[in-house]
Every structure is written in C-alpha cells, then in structure tokens.
Design a protein that fits this description.
This protein is α/β, with parallel strands linked by helices. The protein has twelve helices and eight strands. β1, α1 and β2 form a beta-alpha-beta unit.
C-alpha cells in the first residue's frame, strides 16, 4: 500500500518570518498517519522547516540542489549540506528549472544520484507542453524524461523515490488536467517503470500529479488508482488550504 503524499512547492516565495508564521498556523493540525505531508521551500527557509518538523508530522524538501557535494560552485546548494540539515526530499527536474535555467535530463540524473547517495529522496518532475500534447507526443516525451532521469538508479532506490507528473500547460495557469487525463499519464509512467525495472518496483513508486491542485479537486484526483498524491504550488502557501489538502481523506 503506497502512502499518499501532499507536497507543497513554494517556489521562490516566503521569507523565514513568513515561514515561521505558516508553521505556527499548521501546528498540531497535520495528519499523524495515512498521509505524508511535505513542504518544499526556498533554501533560506529550510532551517525553520527542519526545526519545526522535529516535533510535527511534516517532511521537508529542498527545491533544488547541485550534483556535487562541495566545491567551487558559487550559488549552488550542496546535497550533503542539505542531508546534514535533516532534509528529507529534494525536488528536481521541475519544468521551471528546465525552462529558465537550462537543466538537462543528464543534470537531473546526476542530481538524483547525488540525492540518493546523501540519504535523501528525489522528487523527480516530468511533464509535457500543450504543443506536445496536441501533437500526440506527450507520452513519448514524458517517458523519455523518466528513462533519462532514473538511468543507473537501483530498483531499491527507485522504489523509495517519488515522481511528479506536471503537465506544463497546467502549472500556474488555473488549468488542470482532468482526473482521467492525469490518471492516464501517471499509469503510462508506472508502466514505463515496470518495463525498465519490474512490476514490483513500479507498484512501490509513488507518483504525484501536479498542476493547479487545490482542495476543490484533490479528492477526485486521489480517487484514481495510480495517483498517489499532489505536488502543489499556490494552494500550498496558505495554511488553511495546505491543511485541507493534507487532510483530504478525512
């Protein structure tokens, strides 16, 4: 049985004071079991998150990292340092990182290996543009991203990792893939993992949907067989909204 995940991705929002205020607002209100709640925050906010998560059922995620542990890489974040801080997950391969910062499939694969080596887990993002979907290329594009991202990763490590399917046309646009569209692509991803590894591994990997997930549509999305949770942007930045998402099954 795969434990559902509700993972917030704050992107480049909130300062440490605002983070503290958010954490105070959700204190004692997250589910103790049955759902894994995660907040992915900017690096400047991670210290506050890790302190809070020691006493609360909240997991922490960095929004990115480099693929080397240390060195002359000005402005980058060390995966070893994140692990030493107590970070649980790192989001990699988000479409904004690919689009705005030129990250390649090879970069994302290197980062996945570095994250796992440092005893954290990657949340590997994938997704197609509207043009690719309309041209009938969405499945090939997304499965190609997955195959490149997991190259050289063991079945045991992949089984613990998380994949997030985020159609680019549904991120921050207010548009949402229908629950059936999301389920269809998530199932394709799971089938691709089965072909690369085996059915048992594919059955263990948690695959999230991301793209305008909010309290109003989370239950329908979560009712689908292959969808194991949501990677949530804007709706994760308001405490009451995040709590509603994390407590979707109550």
């Amino acid at each position: 049985m795969r434990t559902p995940i509700i993972a917030g991705n704050w992107k480049m929002n909130k300062n440490p004071q605002e983070t503290q205020e958010f954490l105070e607002a959700i204190k004692g209100k997250l589910p103790e079991s049955g759902v894994e709640a995660i907040i992915g925050a900017p690096a400047i906010d991670l210290n506050a998150l890790t302190w809070f998560s020691k006493d609360e059922p909240l997991k922490t995620a960095a929004e990115n990292c480099y693929f080397e542990d240390a060195g002359a890489f000005t402005g980058e974040t060390s995966p070893k340092a994140l692990s030493d801080m107590g970070i649980d997950y790192v989001i990699i391969g988000h479409s904004e990182r690919r689009q705005y910062f030129g990250e390649t499939d090879e970069d994302i694969n290197k980062k996945a290996h570095a994250i796992l080596k440092n005893n954290m887990l990657p949340i590997i993002c994938c997704g197609e543009t509207l043009e690719q979907r309309e041209a009938g290329k969405a499945e090939d594009w997304v499965t190609g991203q997955i195959e490149a991202a997991v190259k050289g990763i063991s079945a045991d490590d992949l089984a613990k990792s998380v994949i997030a399917y985020e159609p680019i046309w549904a991120i921050g646009t207010g548009k949402t893939a229908t629950a059936d569209q999301a389920q269809e692509m998530v199932h394709v991803i799971r089938e691709k993992i089965a072909s690369l590894y085996d059915a048992a591994t594919a059955d263990k990997v948690r695959i999230l949907y991301g793209g305008s997930v909010k309290p109003a549509n989370v239950k329908e999305l979560m009712s689908k067989e292959d969808i194991d949770g949501g990677l949530v942007g804007g709706a994760s930045m308001d405490p009451e909204s995040f709590l509603a998402l994390a407590n979707f099954n109550k």
